[in-house]
Design a protein that fits this description.
The structure holds two protein chains of two kinds. Chain A is of the alpha/beta class. Chain A has 13 helices and nine strands. In chain A, α4 links the parallel β3 and β4. Chain A is globular, with a radius of gyration of 19 Å. The chains are: A alpha/beta, B alpha+beta. Chains A and B meet through loops of A and β2 of B.
Chain lengths: ~350, ~90
């Protein structure tokens, strides 16, 4: 049995568990997959969050991807991260970097089992700030500098768009020059991303260019984001499959469990940790059972590249009203859909950075 | 890997049982490893017994074919090179 078949049928616990700790954010990025900006009033309390971490430790979850919103806006952020690590659950947290001061940088650098990803969506303020908000590039860069001064090998996560594609080399040089590692991930039409999808998604020419660029830069991480591009030739590094409900899931700030961080929609909600245990939801939810038995069907099954891309990303299909058995809307064999101009006006504007809440 | 070697899991590696055997995760380099069911008794032996002794027992009980042992020891050697297990000295 191939690793694809083994993983498709689900595991005792997720490999990659995303915990969106809060929807509060001091930025308002135009492509935010969770439409973050405002704290949910019924967010999990510190005690509920700790009980969840206890459960994950019992399930031997190796690590969690912590995101949001901006996780550092939670007053109990450091407490919960230390609680997690003390239970041997490694933490990879995503931050916009605005709240990383020298004290936080020292804490990050001195904590084992902790990885940090700073979100940067362009190699210049002009490109980044149009998506993430005025001043966000310089604040993210400051966070990178502080971590570099502590000798900490931070990561930069870059959601590549048609506006930033030409800056990949520049961003790679900037990040690696500071001792960091670049991670490039796929834009999804999730959350507010739906409103800017047509304006920011890569052109087919850029998608082909990205495949070649990733092949030429094996040091660049992708979080298995671009498995739809593996149809172009030799597979990209990673499992090259949709892990939703199989090896991946997402817990939102209210404790709702979704199949993956990119499908925060009722159709993909498996349960809530306030109603039943996370372990029960993971192993018994009808939604997850269905996903584990399902494979993309339709015309993909007769495609020679099926074994490398497995039909692409479920979230991209869902939010573009594409049937799940159809090819990925960005299938490399599909004709270009929509304009190819690099700069198309955005229908949303990011908000300037809000003041940081007191710690 | 010699049959007289004893192996133990690296301190920074966590092991989780799965239907196919186990998943191993290294906190040191953030790598994930798939451990086949047949390999698990070796990886999880905590250095208590020689790998040849474990293999003989599995062969005797019919859980392993003698012909499969050299290949398993090669895979185990691969895990040693990647720092997942160490030979106990």
């Amino acid at each position: 049995m191939s690793s694809y078949d083994v993983l498709r049928q689900g595991l005792n616990a997720p490999i990659c568990l995303t915990w969106e700790m809060t929807y509060a954010c001091n930025l308002l990025c135009v492509h935010c997959l969770s439409s973050s900006g405002t704290r949910a009033p019924d967010e999990l309390s510190t005690a509920e969050a700790k009980a969840l971490l206890d459960e994950w430790a019992a399930m031997r979850v190796f690590y969690i991807n912590v995101g949001g919103g901006e996780p550092m806006t939670r007053p109990d952020f450091f407490e919960l991260m230390e609680y997690s690590i003390a239970r041997r659950i490694g933490v990879k947290f995503s931050t916009n970097g605005t709240l990383v001061d020298r004290e936080a940088a020292r804490w990050i650098a001195s904590t084992d089992y902790l990885d940090v990803q700073i979100s940067v969506d362009g190699a210049s303020a002009e490109v980044n700030d149009a998506i993430r908000g005025d001043g966000s590039f310089s604040r993210a860069r400051r966070a990178m500098e502080l971590l570099a001064e502590e000798g900490f090998p931070f990561k930069v996560n870059h959601v590549v768009t048609r506006r930033s594609f030409a800056q990949l080399d520049g961003l790679h040089a900037l990040v690696t020059g500071m001792g960091g590692q670049l991670r490039v991930t796929r834009l999804r039409p999730s959350g507010r991303g739906r409103a800017v999808w047509d304006a920011l998604k890569l052109t087919q020419e850029q998608n082909r260019g990205l495949y070649a660029w990733l092949r030429a830069h094996p040091d660049v991480l992708t979080g298995d984001s671009f498995f739809h591009l593996s149809a172009l030739g030799a597979p990209l590094d990673g499992l090259n499959m949709c892990g939703a409900g199989r090896i991946v899931c997402c817990v939102d700030p209210r404790g709702d469990v979704y199949a993956c961080p990119f499908v925060l929609a009722d159709e993909f909600k498996a349960g809530n940790v306030r109603d039943s245990s996370f372990a029960t939801i993971w192993s018994e939810s009808p939604l997850f059972e269905r996903l584990r038995g399902w494979e993309v069907g339709g015309q993909c099954r007769s495609c020679g590249a099926y074994g490398r891309c497995h039909g692409g990303c479920m979230a991209v299909k869902h939010f573009t009203d594409t049937p799940l058995d159809d090819p990925d809307p960005e299938c490399v064999f599909a004709p270009e859909s929509g304009p190819t101009t690099t700069v198309i006006p955005l229908t949303l504007s990011p908000r300037p950075i809000r003041p940081a809440p007191a710690r | 890997m010699r049959r007289s070697d004893r192996v133990r899991l690296d301190d920074a590696v966590a092991l989780r049982p799965e239907k196919f055997g186990a998943l191993a995760y290294s906190y040191r380099d953030r790598q994930l490893f798939f451990i086949d069911q047949r390999l698990l008794p070796f990886v999880d032996s905590a250095g208590a017994r020689q790998v040849g002794e474990i293999a003989d027992e599995l062969v005797a009980s019919g859980e392993l074919q003698e012909a499969a042992v050299p290949k398993l020891l090669t895979v185990l050697e691969g895990l040693r090179r990647k720092g997942v297990v160490h030979v106990v000295i």
